[in-house]
Amino acid sequence: xxxxxxxGLAGLMVNTxxxxxxxxxxxxxxxxxxxxxTARDGFVSxxxxxxPHDTRLTVTxxxxxxxxxxxxxxxxxxxxxxxxxxxAMRIAAAGGMFVRQPVKERxxxxxxxxxxxxxxxxxxxxxxxxxxxxxx
Length: 136
Fold this sequence. Notes:
Blueprint: E1 11-16, H1 21-31, E2 38-40, E3 43-48, E4 55-61, E5 77-80, H2 84-93, E6 97-104, E7 110-115, E8 121-126, H3 132-135
Parallel strand pairs: 1-4, 5-8
Antiparallel strand pairs: 2-3, 3-4, 6-7, 7-8
């Protein structure tokens, strides 16, 4: 990365309404199975990595948000994993709604797309295997 003073993505916030909050919390905690770092009424945060270079996903109530996402493909939340097939099966069994089942992409990795209760797209991504040619 260029020497611009940033070390990477610090986090992403998904804002919702108070009425939609219970369904959103259930989706991210129970359906996706993410473990909260911090949770309180109207706020749940998840963390990957170690501070100060960690990444956080926060789902929270925001007073200036109304209704579902108008353009669900505008921002895609991508969650990486090593076994997209198993994750997709577990998530579907927990009530996750996929708009695109796991598909192998031209670049060698896999992507599956689901929708959260607000209509935001959430993707599961499995990276392409590292080629032995690239290791040489």
